Amino acid sequence: MFQQQHYEGTISEQYDMLNKQLNALLEGETDVTANLSNASALLNQFLVDINWVGFYVWKEDQLVLGPFQGLPACIRIPNGKGVCGTAVKEKKTMRIDDVHEFPGHIACDAASNSEIVIPMIKNNQIFGVLDIDSPSKNRFTKEDQEGLELFVQALMKHL
Predict the structure, then answer these.
(1) CATH second-level architecture of 11-156?
(2) Taking the model in full, what pTM does it have?
């Protein structure tokens, strides 16, 4: 859900506008760290009711913490562990309404109650994941999932 002061229209239209802003922000820049940093800041600015947003990058057969907005986080996550590792293992988005009911959930921030993780795939290989946490249960909708998956697709064109 977006802060209405920034965007109006349907959720789909709001995500379309966000993706346009992402493309404009990253146009011509090729540095991965800079682009992931600005992407996390953009999401943090416009998504409401979240307490962490950022990226984990696939390195040395594990996810390693990348640019993010929020409290300090877990640095390394093995393949298949927690919500992020499961998204990598299954190569699919994980939208978890209550993280406390997810087997093997890794609690980096005790305030987090729901989570969405979108795998980032480049050349059919895992590049990393976009991870967003919320202090509210049931925070992320199907519309959020679709919009964030499109955001990741747009972002991957700049990485």
Answers:
(1) 2-Layer Sandwich (3.30)
(2) 0.94
